[in-house]
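We now fix the convention by which a protein and its fold are recorded. Here is one such record, which you should read through line by line:

>
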Amino acid sequence: MGLFDRVKNLLKKPEAPQPEKSILTIAPGDIVEVSLVTYQVTGKTQNAKRNASFLTLQDGNTVRYLLIEERERTEYELYEPIDGRLDSIDEIPTTIEMGDAVYYLEENYSGNVVAVGKTPFTSSGEQYVWQFQTDDRQLLRIEWQDGRMMLYEGESVIPADVRVLRGT
């Protein structure tokens, strides 16, 4: 290495530090393993105000959704879409009976979301969410955005059952 190259290396600006990888930085194209099933992330809806991401996962023809929310600890919930409808978002009850399960309203919130890739809602915007839970910890989630309503049934997943295999 010549003298000129050495001086040039001394004057060169250091590279910017890489942002720390977080579970919330998962994006479409990445691979995620949940409860020993490998999924490709095909979409992501992110609510920055709540520090939460709702990922669209695909394994063959199976589509599931993984909610990742960072609070005092990171929480994971795996959902499947279900058929159903409610008459009005203005009249969502605090308890819902489906089959043998009775779901109780745990949380109701709204906020701006950013949608990327294949998601149930094709655009970003204001989203309203109702989260329900049964006494035996089954979950029900209702989302409303731009006149469209989605219902999901799911369960909590322990953090050890979620593994990120980066694809992009």
